[in-house]
Amino acid sequence: MKFLLPFLVILLPATALVAQPTPSPAASTAVFPAGSTLAWYKVMTGYIDKYRASAYLFYKGGAITGNLYYKPDGRPQRITGTLHGSKMDLYTGGDDKTKESFIGSFSGSTFKGIWIASGDRKTFRLNYFRRDPHFLAFNYVWVNGSRKLKGRPNHPSRNLIYNASAVWPVDSTPFSLYLRNEIFSIMGANPPKSNSITREVKRSMSVYLTDAGTPDEDEAGKEHDAHLTVLYNDQRMLTLDQTFYDYSGGAHGQGGDNYYTYEIQTQARIRLPEVLDTMQYREDISSLLEAQYRIDHQLAEGTPLSTAGADRGVNLFQDNIPLTNNFYLTAKGIGFSYQPYELGAYALGNVDIFLPYTEVMPYLQARFKDWMKLR
User: Fold this and answer.
1) pTM surpassing 0.70?
2) How confident is the model over 166-201, as pLDDT tens digits?
3) Which letter, b or e, does each residue of 5-20 get, where b requires 16 or more Cβ atoms within 10 Å of its Cβ?
4) Are both 233 and 324 inside the same structural domain?
5) Do residues 137 and 179 share a domain?
6) pLDDT, tens digit (0-9, with 9 covering 90-100), for 238-281
7) What is the dihedral angle through the alpha carbons of 202, 203, 209, 212, rounded to the nearest 10 degrees?
8) What does the alpha-carbon distance between residue 212 and residue 10 come to, in Å, rounded to a whole number?
9) What is the CATH number of the domain that holds 177?
10) DSSP secondary structure code for residue 155 in this structure
């Protein structure tokens, strides 16, 4: 069985680089690591009220994205936010900022402030370290570019847009060298023409902006957006999350998340049959996915999934949820990710179902349980 440590990486190639925002002096001194002006990646640990917490944060262009861990079941929570000088605001509800918010500021290596959830207000405090031995060290690279297309009567200004970011291992350990090749492969640079992820991404952007073609007369343009980041990282494994979006005309584009989990010691990617006994228990695990989906979306037990929640757009194409090989691992559970149209209509979006190890314990492979020290 083979597994890897988690980190996120995505890059943007450029023939026509768009000028990136320059951080304010306050941001440079309080937040930005030496030598970085455009993007950074930080692992932060500490407490949210009385709960032990960790966060993986990625900054580019004034925006923050990442994942937060503090819930008892270990489910990752996506976070978005903004950074202005030393002030940073984070939200777990996406566009719905009423769910949870973390309003605070940096002081040296500490981010602290007020956590607001369900009307309650509590304090939080998170810290980061330059080189924490518990986490892999990564650089984070961001590039974007665009090319104007000749206008037509319906669209006087149209663009080809390329936007990407990526993490890149800092060290030259055997695993980091292995992981660099994995990142090149995920990015489509296989074999790469250089040993620099920045060069490879810029080369990809140059090709896209040159050869992506011209949209039809009535289309607004084309866009490629891709980001490879760290979802989870500990001393045993690394999980990377590739978020992508492509638009080439029509009502909407196509996007989603691809996950890659690795075992650090053996320098290998972990496959689903190494985690779960999918040969013997496929239907049982599928039933757990269905049950968790009902809980996540407050659907009545026994109501067919093809009709349940139709008034809210959470009904599925079928009445069962099959296993997918697009999964991720954390310290406390396994998540399964389904891209738009896999389970339901486009408006349903990406479906993420997280199962704690305690729920799937009877179906875990013995070697995986030993490796994770699960009892």
Assistant:
1) yes
2) 999 999 899 999 999 999 999 887 788 888 898 898
3) bbbbbbbbbbebeeee
4) no
5) yes
6) 999 999 999 877 778 888 999 999 999 999 999 999 999 999 99
7) -130
8) 19
9) 3.30.565.40
10) B
